[in-house]
Amino acid sequence: MRAWRALLLLAIASAILLAGCEASGERPPQERIVKLLTAKKMEGRLAGTAGNEEAVQAIGEEFARIGLEKYSGDDYRVLFPYQAAERKEISLKVTMKDGSVKELVYGKHFRERVIRMDLDAAAELMMGEDSIDSLTAGTAFVAASEEELDRAQRRSTRFILARTDMFKPYPARRNLNVPVVDINDDTYGFLKKKQEEIESISLRMKYEDKEEAKAASVIGKISGTSASGPDHHVLVLSAPLDSLGSDAGKVYEGASRAAAVSVLAGLAESLKALSEERPFYSDIIFCAFNGRENGLQGSQELVNSIYDPHVHISAVNLDAMGVKGSKLNLLADNTRNRLVTSLADELKQGGFNAETRNSFDGDHASFGYYSLPAVSFGLEEPNGVRTVRDRAEDLDYGELSRISGIILDFVQKQDEEAKLEHNHAEAYPFGREKSMYEYQDVKQQLVQREMAKLAFKQYELFENKEQDIRELVSNPYQNMEKEEFQNRYPGYSLPQSVGGYSLRSVIAILDEKAFGAGNVDELEPNRIYTSDKTFEKKDINELSLSYEGKNGSVLFLSVLNGEGSSFLQDSGMIPSREVMRNGLEFTIYDRAGTAYSVLYPFNSGGKDYKATLVAYVMTDTGMSPKWELDDAETAALLKGIDWKGLA
Predict the structure, then answer these.
(1) In terms of domains, do 339 and 480 share one?
(2) Selection from 44, 77, 51 nearest residue 62 by Cα
(3) Strand ranges, E, within 278-346
């Protein structure tokens, strides 16, 4: 069996390489790459620096030595626009009730957890698990644990001080909804001891965007035999190339990430050798992503360029690994995906009992944004990743070799399954990964893609015989500024603000019947038609209002007439709970244990409507849905909205 031959080949090759290295005094390949990437001249490999560019060049040369195909053009370097922020000012001050002020020292007492937050605020200090439910926009909370931090982030507190024994910067391109600052044990002890004597605590942070530059990921490829179109399979293997650079004289080696790159290079070499013996069915793309520490910029750039609903794309990302005494975790936005569960089983058989957990912190999240199966290797918290403790001397190269062997076997099994699916398509009508529900999602993606080609008031009979699609599609979305909407449809009275969010724009979604398409059978397939009708309020099927909040947060309020159904109700796949509070009945929907949306049915003028509210906040990986109000606060917000004006 090919998988066993691969493991034997890997074992023999490793033995030969190790023996040769011992005889010549050279380091084994993984250690050689780690030493190269963590060398002093690399200066921590922060994207946009000379050290990072040298690392890019080195991995490009490694891919060339292995003989990978170039992914794009005549270079392994794939450039993308790179954005970063520069700290201009930061201070944390404690004002005592006697009027004295204690200024804490940056880098010694505290450090921001996410680099890219502008804030200038003074707040009342609160501590203890029992105080979390009482947090308001005028308070600052001191979290003694990650559990307290997680709970506090769901509240509307002004900022959070998180106790930690190691400072971990998490650079991001945009602001977070609730700024988090790490404090050391001494600072935590001081605040706890002096809490009754403290009047307020103030945090000031100011950053400026650096001029947009170019950074490069390093990407190579082994082409498979799968045809283009619905049978095309692509597996992405990746690792983050960049680290955090240097700060205050300290260099962030990022050894656990360098180790991941070394495993990626080793896999590329082994898989390239196997492909010459017999080609793979799937394309295998090898990516040393840049910009991971500034919002996953490199992986986002790749996924945006390769995504195609016709193509089977999956990804295994090696985020951090190989640290002595650290336990492996598997990170995914959907831990029940078959890719994740299969990999967990392979690791268990290989002696690694890796825990799977939901997380958006890793390059897998860029693939998850498009609902593509993806998983990252990470390390169980607490760990030294993103700290100066993440050093090459603490790596276990024997463990790295064992992990590499397991992944090598796993990749080949995935490829064999993809080929089996192709050869026995009748037995797998919806694909090995897809349920009927997921298969319908693929169809819907094709329909939505066709809709995106249409301008407002246009429609067509979309026909795709390969996917058995014959459907009338249109663009019923009339996007307007709020003033234009009120002029066009004066019968509405729109709430100008909701819960601290200000109205920004309106989308009127029209009933398709209003387009006057007539008999569908009389339409020519895939020809675009334009409606000449003038629309009125009665033609609107749904209103979608966009509200803007603080720190880049957004609230979407959608009102659907009683003849339709909410997408949340349609799915039947999203966990929910019914709530009765203050005379109102509504439904809270959750994803991965985090509330993110509210469904509220109401009646106006004898007609039923359904309102959906979805809130988005900024995280270090971009926009994420998160409903931060508790049930009582949600009921109060719903009571404060003039629903008659939206009916």
Answers:
(1) no
(2) 77
(3) 283-289, 312-318, 328-332
Q: Can you point out the beta strands (E) in 186-323? A: 198-209, 213-222, 233-240, 246-247, 250-251, 283-289, 312-318
Taking the whole predicted model, whether its pTM rises above 0.70 is answered as no
What is the C-alpha to C-alpha distance for residues 361 and 19, in angstroms, rounded to an integer? 38
Q: Which two tokens stand for residue 39?
A: 């060398």
Range 491-518 burial, b when 16+ CB lie within 10 A, else e: ebebbeebbebebeebbbbbbbebbebe
Tokens standing for residue 226: 């799968």
Same-domain check for residues 139 and 278: no
In a domain, residue 240? The reply is yes
At 518, is the secondary structure helix, strand, or coil?
Answer: coil
Asked whether residue 567 is domain-assigned, the answer is yes
Q: Which residues of 288-310 are buried (b: 16+ CB within 10 A; e: fewer)?
A: bbbbbbbbbbbbbbbbeebbebe
Q: What is the dihedral of CA 418, 419, 422, 424, to 10 degrees?
A: -110
DSSP H helix total and E strand total for the chain: 14, 32
Q: 416 in helix, strand or coil? A: helix
The parent domain of residue 498 ranges over 446-646
Return the DSSP state at 133: G
Phi-psi region of 25 (alpha: psi -120 to 50; beta: other; left: phi over 0): left
Q: What dihedral angle (degrees, nearest 10) is formed by the CA atoms of 362, 363, 367, 370?
A: 60
Q: What is the pLDDT of residues 133-188, one digit of tens each?
A: 888 888 999 999 877 887 787 677 889 999 876 665 554 333 345 788 889 899 99
**pLDDT computed for residue 562 by the predictor:** 64
First to last CA, the chain: 65
Strands in 184-243 per DSSP E: 198-209, 213-222, 233-240
What's the structural domain count of the chain? 3
pLDDT tens digits, 600-634: 999 888 888 999 998 877 654 445 677 888 889 99
Alpha carbons within 13 A on the beta-carbon side of 356 = 20
Same domain, 451 and 488: yes
Q: How far apart are CA 425 and CA 231, in angstroms?
A: 10
Nearest partner of 294 among 448, 504, 103, 84, judged by Cα? 84
Nearest to 315 by CA among 293, 290, 274, 287: 287
Task: Report the distance separating Cα 81 and Cα 212, nearest Å.
Answer: 7
Residue 367 in domain: yes
Q: Which two tokens stand for residue 264?
A: 């990626």
Maximal CA-CA distance, the chain = 88
Select from 242, 260, 258 the least CA-distant residue to 298: 242
Task: Work out the mean pLDDT of the chain and round it to a whole number.
Answer: 81
Over residues 310-324, mean pLDDT = 90
Nearest CA-CA partner of 3 in 342, 408, 423: 408
Identify the three-state secondary structure at position 361.
coil
CB 274 within 8 A of CB 266: no
Q: HSE of 572 in the Cβ direction (CA atoms, 13 Å)?
A: 3
Residue 11 lies in a domain: no
